[in-house]
Amino acid sequence: MSKFVVTAANEAQRTAWLDGTLPAVEKVRPGLWSIPVPIPINPLRYVLVYALELPGGVAIIDAGWNTDEAYDALVAGLAVAGYAITDVKAVLVTHIHADHYGLAGRVREASGAWIALHPADARLLSDRYDDEYVESLVEKEKALLVRSGVPVETLAELAGASMMIRHMVMMARPDRLVEDGDRLDLPGWDLRALWTPGHSPGHLCFVSDERKVLFSGDHVLAKITPIVAVHPQSGPNPLADYLDALLAVRKLDVEEVLPAHEYRFLELAERVDYVIGHHEERLAEIEGVVAAHDGITCWDIATRLTWSRPWETIQPFMRRAANNETLAHLAWLEARGRVSCVLGEPDTWHSTQ
Questions:
Q1: Which residues lie below 8 Å from residue 51, measured CB to CB, with a gap of 6+?
Q2: Could you tell me if 293 and 300 are in contact, meaning their C-beta atoms sit under 8 angstroms apart?
Q3: pTM for the full model?
Q4: Are residues 148 and 299 in contact, defined by beta-carbon separation less than 8 angstroms?
Q5: pLDDT tens track for 265-300
Q6: How far apart are CA 219 and CA 198, in angstroms?
Q7: 34 and 75 in contact (C-beta within 8 Å)?
Q8: What pLDDT digit, counting tens, does each position of 163-208 carry?
């Protein structure tokens, strides 16, 4: 598949992404600001928080990690726009990953803002972030990795790989649950929620039909594709959910996409088509590996796939993500009868063609 390059809505923002620097706080259009909030020790480097001006304050879409550096950057960015953290009236969280949800509770403490989240992600909060339950989640992840065929010597490291970012989150229950199609109560904005599961079960995008913009969270990004994986908190077929959600946003009449990472861009439909094509290629590659190695494990399939770097150089957290992404593609293929799974420890995969 030939590489499709989207048109950046702001070339300076794109250049900052490519150069590995932090883009500037930017007035995107009247009443709308983009604020980069740094993410420590992460190749994504920053999350783009969007501030929507309201009478007497702002609403923000996403918030960043719960670190002092991120909080200070958010406060400074709001100041450029002419606001204080105490002026935040609402935090619309696209999904519960730490770089989007982590600071929401701290912002609410400072401002009294209400926090909005989709119910499917709200249900996952305790298991993911409460000390009382998190060990159970790690054990469930470990069991999934055993079934995937992960070598025993790396099992414990991979199962607990995400524990390092738990302290980047202030646990905060949402004040409002937002369903697909809900209109947000934000004076001066015609913001509508779109449920776009896949990257997380409750991922939300927000669209303004009047302004013709889509706040896409991690659902659609300019250059990379979001992780869509089977894990203990996912649905049984998250890739099917994700591809369906891509087709839903493709129909939107928008002029600009405002993602949570990288940079803003223009061609939504073309980018969606490219991402769908990417997954079709990956599905075909996995199907070919299964056909050539009957009875192979998910982990061994993952080690044979084409990644952005050699498998040996991929860090443990990302190897787990690669395994679980591979499992999501296998679940999609199995649901369509193109591969079959023999359950065990580990599970083995077989071609049906």
A1: 32, 33, 34, 35, 58, 59, 60, 77, 78, 81, 83
A2: yes
A3: 0.96
A4: yes
A5: 999 999 999 999 999 999 999 999 999 999 999 999
A6: 8
A7: no
A8: 667 777 888 999 999 999 999 999 999 999 999 999 999 999 999 9
